[in-house]
Each structure stands twice: as structure tokens, then as C-alpha cells.
Amino acid sequence: QVQLVESGGGLVQAGGSLRLSCAASGSHFGINAMGWYRQAPGKQRELVAYITSGGSINYADSVKGRFTISRDNAKNTVYLQMNSLKPEDTAVYYCNAQYYRDPYHLRREDYWGQGTQVTVSS
User: Fold this and answer.
1) How far apart are CA 51 and CA 38, in angstroms?
2) Phi and psi dihedrals of 33, rounded to 5?
3) What is the pLDDT of residues 31-55, one digit of tens each?
4) How far apart are CA 76 and CA 105, in angstroms?
């Protein structure tokens, strides 16, 4: 029902910036939340930032003050502005969305993008 397409990854020097985008499409009964996760080689997937339908935002401690999540409801798109990038930010970044599957909001389902590589060099 829902497809997520990410873009904006790439190679950047430490201290640089990147902006990730995730566009959602498809039919659903309303969004619960959208966010970004990342996974580095040999490490567990971790939450980077998440924004709910009500506008509340959470960040991982490691990115607070450097990353900013935002959304454009008209475009069904969520963004992640990443500033002051560090080599430890290197990972595949995945867009995640939770959409309701019924009009009564009793069921919801997770959707994932294909991932976009972010590489930060020293």
C-alpha cells in the first residue's frame, strides 16, 4: 500500500552536511509517524530521529544538536538535515513510516525505504 523512496545520501567530509529526503506514496488510512534509522556494518540498527503525526520529535542522543528532522505534509515527505557530520555517522540510513490500515486506527503497519548510504570521511 505504501512505498517509501529515499534520496540524498553520499560521501562527505567530516564537518560537512547532507540532507536526506523520504517521499511516501500509496493508499492508507492515515500516518502515525515517520522517521529515520541507520545501520553501520557490524552494528545494530538504531533510531536516529522520529516525528509523530502530532508533531512530537525524538532524537538519538548521538545526533542531538546536529540533525534536524522535518516533514512536508503536502508532499508526504520527511527530511533529515544532517550537519557537523562525523565519521561515526557513516551508515545506511533507512526511512521508516507507520501507517494505519483501518479507518478506526486499530491497526498500523511499518514500511521501510530501500536505504541510502551516508559515508563521512575523516
Assistant:
1) 16
2) -165, 160
3) 889 999 999 999 999 999 999 988 8
4) 19
H helix and E strand count, the chain: 0, 11
Instruction: Return all residues near 12 (Cβ < 8 A) that are at least 6 apart.
Output: 18, 85, 118, 119, 120, 121
According to DSSP, residue 44 is labeled -
What length is written for the chain?
Answer: 122
Q: Which three cell numbers stand for residue 105?
A: 486506527
Q: pLDDT category, 19, cuts 50, 70, 90?
A: very high
According to DSSP, the β-strands at 10-13 and 116-121 are parallel
Name the grid cell of 15.
564537518
Spatial separation of the C-alpha atoms in residues 41 and 52, rounded to whole Å: 28
d(CA 71, CA 7): 15
Q: What pLDDT score does 110 carry? A: 92
pLDDT at 1 over 80: no
pLDDT at position 26 = 86
